[in-house]
Design a protein that fits this description.
The protein is α+β, with helices and mostly antiparallel strands. It contains four helices and six strands, in the order H-E-E-E-E-H-E-E-H-H.
Length: about 190
């Protein structure tokens, strides 16, 4: 028995929505000159052999607009966290005093802003792939459901139109998120 058109659409929409949400989460970690805990909270470090995100192993604070402090719950992990931030290549060099890691954001030059804008664009391009894949999967399931007579030809045709409308909707959302973040990054 095939899958109903409503279920195919629901699955495709969930996958497309997840792609846009994931992009927004990635963008939280990109700042245009203001320090934010989101910039480092998903950096993973080796915690006794287990890759662990910082947000689960340290207190992350922003004492001022240009500084992020990371106080690990286990002080013995300060060096491992510092190393992980350095390897994450997120645009700043961490220092530590043995108790906490301190990250100072570099001054935002035009060159830095352009690099960030390029990174934002790359994230946006990568986010288009899951939307394209969700569309492909939905159409594939629609074809299979039509072949086993779960969907009529008219229902299948409508499903194809609905899947395209969903794809267009989420691609537009993705472009809006991308444009907004690019403008934020390039703003002097």
């Amino acid at each position: 028995m095939g899958i109903s058109a409503a279920d195919i659409l629901k699955t495709a929409e969930a996958a497309m929505n997840k792609a846009v949400t994931h992009l927004q989460e990635q963008f939280r970690g990109i700042s245009a000159g203001r320090a934010s805990p989101a910039m480092v909270e998903n950096v993973k470090f080796d915690y006794y052999g287990t890759p662990t995100p910082l947000k689960g192993a340290a207190q992350i604070a922003t004492p001022d607009a240009g500084t992020i402090t990371i106080k690990p719950f286990d002080i013995s992990q300060v060096r491992a966290i510092s190393k992980a931030i350095m390897e994450a290549n997120i645009g700043f060099t961490p220092t530590d005093d043995g108790k906490q890691v301190i990250c100072r954001l570099p001054q935002m030059t035009t060159e830095n802003r352009q690099k960030l804008a390029k990174q934002v664009k790359e994230f946006g391009e990568a986010a288009k792939l899951p939307i394209k894949n969700a569309r492909h999967e939905a159409l594939k399931h629609g074809e299979a459901s039509q072949k086993d007579a779960t969907l009529t030809e008219d229902t299948h045709r409508k499903l194809k139109d609905d899947v395209q409308k969903l794809t267009d909707k989420y691609n537009k959302q993705l472009e809006e998120v991308l444009k907004k973040k690019t403008e934020e990054v390039l703003k002097a």
